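Batch manifest line 307
LIGAND: glycine
JOB: complex structure
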Amino acid sequence: MSLVLCNYCGEYGMTDAAEALSSGESALDVLEAGIAPCEANSDIDIVGKGRWPNALGVMQTDAGVMDGATLQVGSVGAVENITHVFSLARLVQSKLPHVCLVGEGAKRFALEMGFTEEAEMVSELGKQDYQNWLRENNVDLSQLSKYLWPKDKDTYSFHKDTVIYLALDARGNLAAGTSTTGWPFKYPGRLGDSPICGAGFYADNRYGACACTNTGEMTIRASTARSVVLYMKKGASVREACLEAAEDLNDLQGGYLGSVSIHAIDPKGDYFVLMTEDSEQDFCIFEEGNPAFRREEVFLVPKYSAT
Ligand code: GLY
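JOB STATUS: finished
ARTIFACT:
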């Protein structure tokens, strides 16, 4: 059973992704069909052209892709003025001997590959949010680190989200993909889990594919995406593997602890999505043969204790 699954932020691209899957395109192409429209739509806050820049008011985006057939990976981080960073990550994977490019090097590679340099990545709403953030916190731009550690999580209410897509194509190939603008007002140069293979995404045709959203600092520490696939390798079902990885996250001590969403599929077409804190999030799933994609609710696991 071939399928494509995305988190709620990816819904805008799901019709295109479902069409690509039904036309017999590869799992990697299905991911790109879903993610690219989200990146180009500045009404989607947390990906590509979007809403929340870093602490200097500059949009820096991250993306990653893994091909479950070959275990090849491409990723980019802290890229400025390029919209389609997921496509760029794919080109890192297919054109270079490297796995990850960041910052100026990633942008240079994008321009060499014929990508357009965008003059503006931050929406008007995002510019207002940024000015409000500067004003409300009396931000001194020479001391950014003072403003980035949320003492009370409720005061840091902006989403820390990502578009994630997972696909299983008709040939049995699995793939995982991510694209994000990362935390709003993050420290310049900060990478989350979205460009980190094993943390934010992982795919292996033999066992399964996984992608994570929200607090990337945690999934990097727990190697969450790789762990989920490894638990499946050791015999866990998709659901059991995700719950086991959530336990690993729960065991983290200190540092910034927030919510994490884990999305996973296996080679048989089973899937499971959980979130570690209460929230009203859905995800979208399209299984080949159905007329359209549908929304389902994520499974909520008990809240983490605060730091
Ligand atoms: N998971 C998105 C981020 O931490 O940037």
